[in-house]
Design brief:
43% of the residues lie in helices and 20% in strands. The chain has 214 residues and is α/β, with parallel strands linked by helices. The chain has a five-stranded parallel beta sheet. A two-stranded antiparallel ribbon has the order 3-4. The longest helix is centred in the last third of the chain and has 24 residues, at 190-213. It is globular. It has one domain (5-213): P-loop containing nucleotide triphosphate hydrolases (Rossmann fold, 3-Layer(aba) Sandwich). The structure holds cytidine-5'-monophosphate. Its main location: cytoplasm. It is found in: Cytoplasm.
Length: 214
């Protein structure tokens, strides 16, 4: 295995970045690809009560254990397997179990704030920002948080207005400037996905050629 290609897919909550990342993942399944979600690296909060955990600002860069994410990325790039944490959105903390992730040729990093930390950003070959209007993002978030994350409508709306929206404007939106590619409306933008996968294959090939000759 040569040096892997690292692709970052950032964007606000509900932007469709997970769909973009999963579509890319699907296109590379014949090759060797792995996906690392920044959500898995929310800090462990098992030392706090559930009430205290519910009060945490999960949209601030401090909420993430970027040191561990960076370390895991370095390990994968170095050809070593990692034990990726698993996050529980209902209990607001890390689970006891982890999942083993083997090193692969293509690494997709997906998450709201992955372009915010320069150390992680600098390890990416392609930086993508999925840019979706705020009304679409909040509608998607309401549906998802109620269906999948055990939340009430009231709590989703309050959290959005008091935390998610201001943090988006302060921390996520400004990282758009670091992106190589801005994908409007995320999700199933076929043209953008095809362009991205062609570029990823090119870089993969280049790295494999360099690997052969070094
Ligand atoms: O998948 P997505 O990028 O939307 O996940 C990030 C969002 O999850 C953040 O906007 C944050 O508000 C929310 N979150 C939460 N409760 C947690 C951890 C994160 O509502 N315990």
């Amino acid at each position: 295995m040569g040096h892997p290609v690292v692709i970052g897919v950032a964007g606000g909550s509900g932007s469709g970045k997970t769909t973009v990342a999963r579509e890319l993942f699907r296109q590379f399944q014949n090759d060797s690809v792995t996906m690392i979600e920044q959500d898995s690296y929310y800090k462990d909060q098992s030392h706090l009560s559930l009430e205290e955990r519910a009060l945490t600002n999960y949209d601030h860069p401090f909420a993430f254990d970027n040191d561990l994410m960076l370390h895991h990325l370095q390990e994968l790039i170095g050809g070593r397997a990692i034990d990726k944490p698993i996050y529980d959105f209902k209990l607001h903390t890390r689970k006891q179990e982890t999942v083993r992730v083997e090193p692969k040729d293509v690494i997709i990093l997906e998450g709201m704030l992955i372009l915010e930390d320069a150390r992680i950003r600098d390890m990416m070959d392609i930086k993508v920002f999925v840019d979706t209007d705020a009304d679409v993002r909040i509608v998607r978030r309401i549906v998802r948080d109620i269906e999948e994350r055990g939340r009430s409508l009231d709590s989703v709306v309050n959290q959005y207005l008091s935390i998610v929206r201001p943090m988006h404007l302060q921390f996520i939106e400004p990282t758009k400037r670091y992106a190589d590619v801005i994908v409007p409306e995320g999700g199933y933008n076929r043209v953008a996905l095809d362009l991205l996968s062609t570029k990823i294959r090119d870089i993969l090939l280049e790295k494999q050629q360099v690997g052969k000759h070094s």
